Write a sequence for this structure.
């Protein structure tokens, strides 16, 4: 058995679960007593809240607020990874990473480097897709492959990325039907970036009223950080989606395309584009 390193990856919490942590002062004063109280509360909601189940897996594996029980921690991570529930999708990659580590170290399961490799590949799929999309030189065929793998495992970010690649023929033959299927499903699951791309698609095809209606829904909430936490997407892509929606809504309002012409409202949404672009710059600078 390999030497075990304590400390599973404790993922960001949803608003609901994070509120529970704050009430318990769990994050700011991690005493054993508060871990125990957190454990009790998570046990109460684990059957309806996958993030609570995830935190329980971490706590049992590392012995936080309870006796160290790696087998039980692994059991919770497997439940998340194998779940068909849409509510578990955003946790699958973190669970796969943790399970890979457990198999690599032989802690809570029989040691298996092969299984660790398989699980770590699942955890890295979306990241690899983005790497090959942005690297110099780009390798869009590899990017498409890894985004496809990640999408098959429920990754929302990669589903939107596949829509873009199909739409513009990047790393794959152009396929508008497949692109719209990917973007619409990703949009329904909460991807702001996919929603913004659909607004652009509708506008360019002169479906102005549809473009404006979708854009209005997106721009109702321009709090990038909150939207990123709610959808579990990268703030960079959330900001891009909001900026696209605001820009095309402003164009519709400026020229009276699909909506009543309103210059004042158009100016307001153009300013929202600028704010979103400024946020993108801040994100890229790491502020």
């Amino acid at each position: 058995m390999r030497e075990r390193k304590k400390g599973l990856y404790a993922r960001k919490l949803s608003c609901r679960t994070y509120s529970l942590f704050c009430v318990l002062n769990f994050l700011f004063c991690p005493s054993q007593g508060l871990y125990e109280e957190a454990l009790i509360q998570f046990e109460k909601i684990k059957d309806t809240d996958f993030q609570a189940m995830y935190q329980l897996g971490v706590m049992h594996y590392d012995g936080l607020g309870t006796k160290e029980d790696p087998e039980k921690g692994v059991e919770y991570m497997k439940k998340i990874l194998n779940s068909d529930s849409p509510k578990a999708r955003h946790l699958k990659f973190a669970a796969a990473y943790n399970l890979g580590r457990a198999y690599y170290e032989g802690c809570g399961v029989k040691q298996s480097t092969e299984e660790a490799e398989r699980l770590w590949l699942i955890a890295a799929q979306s990241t690899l897709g983005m790497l090959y999309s942005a690297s110099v030189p780009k390798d869009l065929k590899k990017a498409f492959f890894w985004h496809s793998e990640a999408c098959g495992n429920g990754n929302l970010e990669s589903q939107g990325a596949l829509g873009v690649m199909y739409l513009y023929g990047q790393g794959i033959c152009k396929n508008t039907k497949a692109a719209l299927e990917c973007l619409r499903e990703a949009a329904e699951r909460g991807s702001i970036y996919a929603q913004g791309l659909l607004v652009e698609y509708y506008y360019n095809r002169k479906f102005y009223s549809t473009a404006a209606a979708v854009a209005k829904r997106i721009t109702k909430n321009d709090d990038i950080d909150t939207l990123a936490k709610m959808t579990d997407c990268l703030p960079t892509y959330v900001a891009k989606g909001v900026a696209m929606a605001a820009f095309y809504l402003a164009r519709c309002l400026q020229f009276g395309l699909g909506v009543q012409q309103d210059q004042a409202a158009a100016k307001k949404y153009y300013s929202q584009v600028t704010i979103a672009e400024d946020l993108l710059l801040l994100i890229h600078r790491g502020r």
Observations:
- The longest helix spans residues 113-134.
- Confidence is low (pLDDT under 50) at residues 12-30, 282-287.
- Residues 192-287 form one domain.
